[in-house]
Amino acid sequence: MPEEKFSTTALLSILDSIAPFAMAEPWDNVGLMVGDPGQQVNGILIALDPTEALIHEALSQNLNTILTHHPLIFHPLKTIRSDTPMGRILKTALAHNLSLIACHTNLDLIAAGVSNALAEKIGLHDTRPLTGQEPAAADQSPGFGKIGTLSAPLPSKEFLSRLLTGLNTPGLQLAGPLPETVHTVALCGGSGSDLAETAWSMGAQVYITAEVKHSVARWAEEAGFCVIDAGHYPTEKLIVPILAETLKKTCAARGFTPVITTTAQQDNPMQWVVSDDNKPRFCQPIEPLRKHN
Predict the structure, then answer these.
(1) Confidence class of residue 135 from pLDDT cuts 50, 70 and 90?
(2) Residues 6+ apart with CB under 8 A from 291
(3) What is the torsion angle, in degrees rounded to the nearest 10, for the CA atoms of residue 213, residue 218, residue 223 and residue 228?
(4) Domain annotation covers residue 213
(5) Which of 197, 33, 21, 195 has its CA nearest to residue 110?
(6) What is the pLDDT of residues 207-223, one digit of tens each?
(7) Given a cut of 60, is residue 45 above it in pLDDT?
(8) Which of 20, 26, 88, 138 is a plausible cystine mate for 128, CB 3.0–4.6 Å?
(9) 246 and 102 within one domain
(10) Domain residues for 199?
(11) Which of 243, 153, 166, 266 is nearest to 208 (CA)?
């Protein structure tokens, strides 16, 4: 029999087996954003965000497929102008026959998804989702966020140090009092501000997420509950190398061995600036995101 070609359609089928596209929230946009479903995949570049720099990184490596967590096209487009960032990305992708694919809330919701990567990084055990959990085998149930326990309680400063190091971030924002020791932790990678009260009601001592609303920070202060805003990029980037490894193994199981790599260039779009003797000083992450081959 002739060797089966590894088309974009075949890749989408594999991704659907990892993070079913039907699981995505109704307001979301996932799957193939740009490209020909019948095109043969010669290599895949994985990153968190679909950017113009990522397009050129893929082209420089002769990779014709880009897989990101955040979708390129989220809201319906009324115009496509090549003098805008979106227009330039679409123009370049189409001109070079690139395929752009997104796994967004479907990758958030699966048991081994974005929040699980964050939970594993900070050492949580016996985790279950904050939403949609089932009584049995809760750690394998789909849902947004995670709640679990550390193997042993940590003094608050040691816990914060673990978080800063694990997320490779120069800073955190806290609302509400930080417990003297931390044992039960809830989290949600990305924008999880709306789940703060859920985390509190489920018995968490601390809730880690990103883009915390001002009203939620005030609520945490009044409730005596610690909410930590660790940033969108730091709380989600951990899924990138995990997705690459999972995709490699799943492709291999189906007889495909495409080049699969992660971005070596994309980093946090937000920078920390702190006061150093009343002078601004830029803080850099502990180390750059490493390429994963």
Answers:
(1) very low
(2) 261, 262, 263, 264
(3) 50
(4) yes
(5) 21
(6) 999 999 999 999 999 99
(7) yes
(8) 138
(9) yes
(10) 111-235
(11) 166
159-197 per-position pLDDT tens digit: 999 999 999 999 999 999 999 999 999 999 999 999 999
Residue 177: DSSP 8-state? P
**123, 159: one domain:** yes
- CA dist 51 and 283 (Å) reads 23
284 occurs within a structural domain? no
Residue 167 lies in a domain: yes
Position 278 in a domain: no
Q: Tell me, yes or no, whether 146 and 223 share the same domain.
A: yes
Six-digit token pair at 245? 């490894």
Q: What confidence score (pLDDT) does residue 287 get? A: 46
Residue 140 DSSP one-character state? G
Provide the terminal-to-terminal Cα distance of the chain, rounded to the nearest Å. Answer: 31
Indicate the number of domains in the chain.
Answer: 2
Residues 168 and 99 grouped into a single domain: no
How many Å separate Cα 18 from the centre of its chain? 15
Q: Are residues 126 and 231 in the same domain?
A: yes
Amino acid at residue number 110: I
pTM for this model (two decimals) = 0.92
Q: Where are the alpha helices (DSSP H) in the chain?
A: 8-18, 52-60, 85-95, 105-109, 114-121, 156-167, 196-201, 214-223, 232-236, 239-253
pLDDT band of residue 283 (cuts 50, 70, 90) is confident
Same-domain check for residues 86 and 128? no
* Gap between the Cα atoms of 205 and 179, Å rounded: 7
